[in-house]
Amino acid sequence: LPVLIVPVVDETTLRETYERMDAVLMAGGADVDPIHYGMEMTPKVYGVDPLRDHAELTLIRWAAQEDKPLLGICRGCQMINVALGGTLYRDIPAEYPDFTGVNHSLSGAVARKQPAHAVDIFANSRLAQAMAVPAGRLAVNSMHH
Questions:
Q1: What is the distance between the alpha carbons of residues 80 and 65, in angstroms, rounded to a whole number?
Q2: Which of 48, 51, 68, 138 is 20 to 30 A from 35 (CA-CA)?
């Protein structure tokens, strides 16, 4: 059964909950505090939650060390990257102005409903199997900055 982890400072309680989990899923949300990847806060960084960051980084590191299945969605992918030593752009347009790739800047209500770009589905991949398609492209939404 899914378990919602409420960010707590008490690592004993967090560990007890983690021990009952078969896998860890990190969901989307606001930005990761740049302090965790060696950068400073800027006005473009929003919604930082220190307790959530701490709990998620701890869970990810435990899962990685103990080979427990781990999946990240959106912010969750970023958290996995940071927990394992990676870095992030705090704001792609501000820090990488020459970037001409995928537009992730749709915002507001339209961003949740309007596809922003396509992703490739490779033949025989897990995604192809889950989608029950041989291969192709899929339009997805996007709200990253």
A1: 12
A2: 68
